[in-house]
Amino acid sequence: MQGSEGEKIFDSYNLNPQLFVNEVTDSVNTIVNEAFDFFLQETATVLKVEGTDRFEPLKKGVEYIRSMVQSKLDQRQYMWQKYCLSQCFTVPQGFSLPQADKPSLDTSSDQDTELDAQLDSLRSKLAQVVEESTDLNKELQELEMQSSKRKCSAASLNEVIQFYNELGLHEKFSELVTTASELRSSLEKRVTQMCSEIEHERAEKIRKLDDDDKLRLNYHGYGDHSGLSNAKLEDLKQFLDDLKTPNDL
């Protein structure tokens, strides 16, 4: 606008550029505030932290993101306001209010044509402002979506870390490794002991067979000391079966 003269012209057509700019700015700020309030409420509900000690850190995080978005948005709105007031709502050069006390019937047709052209120009600029406002709202929605995704990802990661810490999985895994090592050592000792006992049992059987004359190394007491060469086939089979079958531990 061009000073008070421009304001008079807009007032004569019941137009207020500054009021329009203020209403658009207030509407955008209201949408942003409602969006972040809804985001905070939904996040607290999903994470089940409302009314707990974890709610305050969550609220601070959302407020931090809100301030970042609002700062960028304020810069864009400031530039948009300047553009609207300096370009879109500028009174065309040579435009003046009609003189009511000096009627000029001869030039009324030309004035109407010029006035229509000026109104068309204002309508075109106003449509351009509305289009730019729509683009600005789209960018704001994209920022809100990105912020929501990042916040959800961070919250999910924090939950996994907290769940891991609460379960103490690292300590339990260490205990499991230690227990497995001890069990393996115990099994190795047990196997070694069993092998030793089996060998001992076999040696004991051989000794008992010799003492009880099961193998009959001195066959039937005839004084023949030829040993296995004179043993019966049944005695040899029984001797081998006894060697292969250890006693129960």
Automatic annotation (TrEMBL):
Q: Name one Pfam family in it.
A: Mis12
What's the chief localization of this chain?
Answer: nucleus
Which terms under GO biological process does the entry name?
Answer: cell division; kinetochore assembly; mitotic sister chromatid segregation
Q: Which species does the entry assign this protein to?
A: Cuscuta europaea (European dodder)
Compartment(s) where it occurs, according to its Swiss-Prot or TrEMBL record? Chromosome, Centromere, Kinetochore
| Signal sequence extent | none
The family note in this entry says:
Belongs to the mis12 family.
Q: What is this protein called?
A: Uncharacterized protein
